[in-house]
Amino acid sequence: MSERASNAGYADEAPDLLQRYESFAPEEVHAHWRQWFPKPPRRVLDIGAGTGRDAAWLASLGHSVLAVEPTDALRHGAQALHPEPGITWLSDLLPGLPNVVALNQRFDLILINAVWMHLTEAERRTAFATVAGLMASGARLFISQRHGPIPEGRRMFDVTGAETIAFATRYGLKTLYHERKGSIMAESTRRGVEWTCLVFEKS
Prior knowledge:
The chain has a single domain (10-202), classed as Rossmann fold. It has 8 helices and 7 strands. The chain has helices spanning 10-20, 26-29, 53-60, 72-81, 98-101, 121-133, 161-170, 186-190, and strands at residues 43-47, 64-68, 87-90, 107-113, 135-147, 173-182, 194-202. Strands 3-2-1-4-5-7-6 form a 7-stranded mixed β-sheet, sandwiched between helices. α6 (121-133) links the parallel β4 (107-113) and β5. The chain is globular and about 40 Å long.
């Protein structure tokens, strides 16, 4: 299983995801940690931007968003759904994000929503180093990580808030928020899916 790409399964499901993910209002999805979002205008990096729902919302708030999505079918569909000028789309993949790193930019808000559990432990260690290096002074990092049954065709691993906090501490990031919560999707709730949500800040 570990030999599969971290975004395995998403291309086949892209048409369904482009409808399903867009059916949830971002204001609801992010209500639990919205208080930690920095005020616009800020430079935002949305890693694993999926259908573009969150990138479009952040752009509507006045942020400049670099939306990174490695799955071509999702990224192309997202660009068609969300042609907002405040979003720049890029194909790239954790843990190294070479295309993002090559831009030599730093970001004030980094969102990694429903991505972290697709990485192996070694990949998570490398990914955190990469992401920490992309954070501007005072930047905030938002990570949500899934717990529960693995959907057919996906690659997922057990992750814990404690491990992620340990990575953050190693790179001098302060933990602002840490909560384990239920899913907003009724089907996922029935299957016992939960999420750990974390916010970190760079000094």
